[in-house]
Amino acid sequence: MSLDPKIAARLKRNPDGLVPAIAQQYDTGEVLMLAWMNDEALHRTLTTGRATYWSRSRGEFWVKGGTSGHVQHVKAVALDCDGDTVLLKVDQVGAACHTGDRTCFDADPLEIVLG
Question: What is the DSSP letter of 71?
Answer without folding.
Answer: -
